[in-house]
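Journal club prep, notes for RB
We'll compare a predicted complex against what the paper describes. Inputs for the pyridoxal-5'-phosphate case:
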Amino acid sequence: MQYISTRGSAPRLGFEDVTLAGLASDGGLYVPESWPSFSTAEIAAMRGLSYVDTAVAVMKPFVAGALDEAELKKLCEAAYGRFSHAAVVPLKQLDHRQWLMELFHGPTLAFKDVALQLLGLLFERFLARRDTHLTVIGATSGDTGSAAIDALAGRAKVDIFMLHPKGRVSEVQRRQMTTVLAPNVHNIAIEGSFDDAQALVKAMFADADFASRFNLSAVNSINWARLMAQVVYYFYAGAQLGAPDRPVAFSVPTGNFGDVFAGYVAAKMGLPIAKLIVATNVNDILHRALSAGDYSVGTVTPTAAPSMDIQVSSNFERLLFDLHGRDGPALSASMKGFEASRRLDIPQAMRAEAAALFSSTRVDADRMQLAMRWAHDKAHEVIDPHSAIGLAAAQDSDLDPSVPIVTLATAHPAKFGDAVERATGIRPTLPARIGGLFERQERYAVLPAEIGAIEGFVADTAAAAV
Ligand SMILES: Cc1ncc(COP(=O)(O)O)c(C=O)c1O
Ligand SMILES: N[C@@H](CCOP(=O)(O)O)C(=O)O
């Protein structure tokens, strides 16, 4: 399998190089040269498979040329062996048509573990073959950070620098990152928003001297391998609910458009998906873009679902690439215009094409709380604010009532204990494996959201390590 950049001018790469590169050298994102697809018989054969076997079946075409089936299976067994539920991502029925897929049984209690546990092992495997040191740079609104740190802490040949917006992640989220004291882990709280942090990461990649001097790589969903691993659970849920004979819809709490883009990939690969519901909080750029063509950046409003307090959604570029007929130079021009003016108008024809698969809903704080209460009172489930945004959008959808809707439950409720308690009166407890979080020492730097300050910190840290 070969991969191409959405901006058309970076070199075509195989899976191993794409994984280690993270972002393409022309500023674009890597995507497979063509979408692999499964026949209905192949999808039917996924019914009853374990999560690991589903993962191997779904990811095999993407890793071709870099890993054989036995190697892939070994990595999946190691990654998903660390999940605390035997089903890895269990599916729960809430009422006659609403389902919840719990993606938070990994080591750091959010869906990010599904991809990052595997990505950590992929880095290790690929670096073992090379005499190279990798500097991983990431931005987090709360969950990617701890999942990436858990996956990379203590690994040889890798340092990780993780930027989070100071004071805008929950205390549990911050402590999950900053109490990891492994010498290769470096947390930075920046004076700004997640969008500022993400822009700084991209600026470091765009600084060609810096990027090659430190051999930068990415753990955010700009890295293709992240999305590849997330495609698996759409097939896993779909097969359990009757695919390929019955279409299924998914409601996806959305910020950086990575998780829902993985659903788009599953649809491209042949999974019958009736609709992908893009559920946003009041930071609603994606809802405006999909419903009215208005992809313009507003100011970020802090909410009770802080991991989704995002305006610039990196992976939207991957969808725009397909909507531009995979014309890299045309998309590159559009994205440069967007970067300069902070707005992009999505033409009606592209919106109509997207609407065949995507719908979108903006969920405000009151509606989110109502969904949390409904889940607790009617379905006896305590859910987190992000998952509640997905559930609210699923409940408000006007889809054919015979279609089951799976809401992706993206985080454990205990990560957002205050918000859950406000809505339901219940204070969820952290699983024992996270215990002691509040007693442990924290270590992090606080820096302004300026490229010079961050690059200087990375360079000084690297020099001190020599
Ligand atoms: C708990 C949670 N839910 C939903 C999202 C949104 O996912 P995505 O950025 O893939 O759209 C995030 C952050 O990415 C998150 O941490
Ligand atoms: N919500 C995310 C934001 C970064 O998203 P990613 O999927 O691109 O890593 C977070 O928790 O950090």
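Talking point for the session: The first helix runs from residue 15 to 21.
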